[in-house]
Amino acid sequence: MGYKILVVDDEKTIRDLVAFRLEFHGHQVETAQNGTEGLAKVESMHPDLIVLDVMMPDLTGYEVCAKVKAGEGSKDTKVILLTAKGRKQDEDEGHAAGADAFMAKPFRANLLLAKIDELMNG
After folding, report:
1. Do the Cβ atoms of 107 and 75 come closer than 8 Å?
2. Do 50 and 77 form a contact (C-beta atoms < 8 A)?
3. Which pLDDT band holds residue 44 (cuts at 50, 70, 90)?
4. How is the beta sheet containing 78-83 ordered, strand by strand?
5. Is 28 strand, coil or helix?
6. Which of 37, 3, 88 is nearest to 52 (CA)?
7. Which domain holds residue 105?
8. How far apart are CA 81 and CA 107, in angstroms?
9. For 102, how many CA atoms within 13 A lie in the half-sphere containing its CB?
10. Residue 29, C-beta contacts closer than 8 angstroms, at least 6 positions apart
11. Looking at residue 57, which CATH number applies to its domain?
12. What is the mean pLDDT of residues 82-101?
């Protein structure tokens, strides 16, 4: 059985590619192009997991993650942060915001799928 996954990234190519790969593997996927839209979709779809870009124009992935983890109905939602930076301080900031995992771009789809499986199945 697949999971409900929300993909939030301001880069359409990445958003669509990640969504395609997740859907191909049986997951129910919705997408959002920025943090504000992502937070609205969290409220409407109640995802099991969010794949979340860090660098976005309105709200950063850190801000979105912190809001998701602070929400009563969403605090248990798993969050994977994606970043082009890949610096240790960025990873530390992500974990401080409540992220469950952190992946540097570019990443391989099979590694993302493995990380999702690891987070969802313990």
Report:
1. no
2. yes
3. very high
4. 28-32, 4-8, 49-53, 78-83, 101-104
5. strand
6. 37
7. 4-121
8. 12
9. 21
10. 5, 6, 7, 19, 22, 23
11. 3.40.50.2300
12. 85
The tens digit of pLDDT for each residue in 73-90 reads 999 999 999 988 767 787
User: pTM, whole model, 2 decimals?
Assistant: 0.94
Residue 77: exposed, middle, or buried by beta-carbon count in 10 A (0-12, 13-18, 19+)?
buried
Q: Which two tokens stand for residue 23?
A: 């859907």
State the residue for tokens 């124009």: 57
Domain count, the chain: 1
CA distance 60 to 116: 21
Give me the residue label for tokens 């995992």.
101
Percentage of the residues of the chain whose pLDDT score is greater than 90: 80
Rg of the chain on CA atoms, in Å: 13
CB count in 10 Å sphere of residue 72: 5
H helix or E strand, kind and range, residue 112 = helix 109-121
Average pLDDT over residues 27-37: 98
Residue 71 tokens, joined: 């929400």
